[in-house]
């Protein structure tokens, strides 16, 4: 039996968020899925998110919001595309068909519309719909969290912050999942460079819920962005037992921990975290967040001169099946790092050629629209760098560097591309590029003083004797 704390039909109605079903079991399962999504934690006693999605559809096969949350989560996970996965396309169609055959509330109808838009790649329009829901229903956590994830994928940092700020006054401490708003808001603050405020809000969240992995993640980012390496290492270690229970986020938090070691030049320590945690969790979950983290960590280590060839080969087993998904350009770029790292030309070509085809006729798909001017050039820069054509990589990346944000992800995640530009400029034979590398490093040093990684790169740039 589900815990009494999960909300039934009456409880949802009392909160002004009625659900169109007469099944209390379905309502409670919907709540159980929502709880696990927000807390980043598969609760095995409930059968995890997947078990609950199957159970909610069994409890009431026609419960539209049960389909919205189940199908929505698969779409937002970005590990599958309706273009390549017939089962997922069928699930979206079933949700739409069910919605047409029932008398739903306006809020539920908008949820269905948003899932439909997201499935077609119109991420920006889906976010608009979720935000419209929040105007009328600011305590609809599903709309808030889906919107948060959508803005994250779009690289819309200010919107991600403001989306939470707008609803905060309507939430009260007694409401279910209240403390988790702190992590969401904190993340928006840090991505808009309000680091001190972000840390304060995240720590308020941790005081309420010490095992809130997203608040931990927020603090990890703050230390990363301020190059407070020792503070970051101490923080991650002291809280590890609390946050590692968040199985959907633990890999990402370990990735942050490893980044501190890369920053310090402690490559063996970073590789140990990669082997013991990141790689193991990524292979087990196959989740996109875990996968891109594994790709990125290896690529950063490789730029630092560490040999990771064997690890790339293992990781290719996870990334290769997704080479033609093209759900997010951010994902594509990370998969490309691995196929290049393995010297797997056929996978590289398949990824690039299939993306070029989609870029020619993008339709309403936001990512495919971005592919021609941002996604494909960034992919090509990775290829040129891999082939030793460093000056070409600089020429490709330099004009679009202020557009990297549009591929989504966090500042910390996208930093791998800023590092790529710096490495390319340092390695280029062109003296102008080498001087440009110094400019980039001066700029990096000013916003993130005391970074050991920046200091190492500055030394390399100065050894060029310009």
TrEMBL record:
<dbReference type="InterPro" id="IPR033891">
    <property type="entry name" value="TTC38"/>
</dbReference>
<comment type="similarity">
    <text>Belongs to the TTC38 family.</text>
</comment>
<keyword id="KW-0802">TPR repeat</keyword>
<keyword id="KW-0677">Repeat</keyword>
<dbReference type="InterPro" id="IPR011990">
    <property type="entry name" value="TPR-like_helical_dom_sf"/>
</dbReference>
<protein>
    <recommendedName>
        <fullName>Tetratricopeptide repeat protein 38</fullName>
    </recommendedName>
</protein>
